[in-house]
Amino acid sequence: MFIDFHTHRDRQCQNLINLQTLHVNTDLPAHSLPPTCSLGLHPWFIAMSSWEEAYQNLEILAKLPEVIAIGECGLDRNIDLPMELQITIFQRHIELAETLQKPLVIHCVRAFSELIALKKTTKSVIPWIVHGFHKKKEVFQQLLEHGFYFSFGAAILSDRSPVVPAIATIPQGRFLLETDDRDDISIEQIYDRTAALRQVSLVTLQSQLVETYHQLTSLSRINRRIDTIHSQPNLTE
Fold first, then answer.
1. pTM exceeds cut of 0.85
2. Per-residue pLDDT tens over the stretch 85-98
3. What is the rounded distance in angstroms from the CA atom of residue 82 to the CA atom of residue 70?
């Protein structure tokens, strides 16, 4: 089984979990969602005049079972949208992810200090997964120490990428793999490269990442079971 944890392509195969990410606008309908997906307000596409209405739509759609994660969402210093507003919208995503107990898929560009600060101040306990991570070792270590998870993609195919040492040494259970918006590479290529860098077999890597995926995405189901158990009457009383 392969898992493409973050992709903009609708690719359905028997041996693939394809977590397609969609930007939510004011009129994205529930019937258009793929079987497994991640929903959020991407910073690039946020309209200042209508983001609150779009977020209200997200709140409705995010409760559906096919929505596995919240995002992508986050912070980007390379766009014109004011950082203060970006933080406000991102905080709304954090609250939603906590309420629904679904992991948060994060887009972050030149704002890692703010990202770490928000994780500390919100005291969020759901997984925060930085997608498409390709930054230098120092940033990687900081995020790792603060409990972040990672999704690695095309960057690991280059020997010159600063993230290559990270993929070789990151602890099991702290990462997944993705193709993002690249239609010229396959998730199978990403898996093969990762297995080589980590010096494990492809079968072993697949098994490890299936386990990680289920650990990160089963929070809401686990909590629903716990709530059900707690709500049942104690017949021994």
1. yes
2. 999 999 999 999 99
3. 22
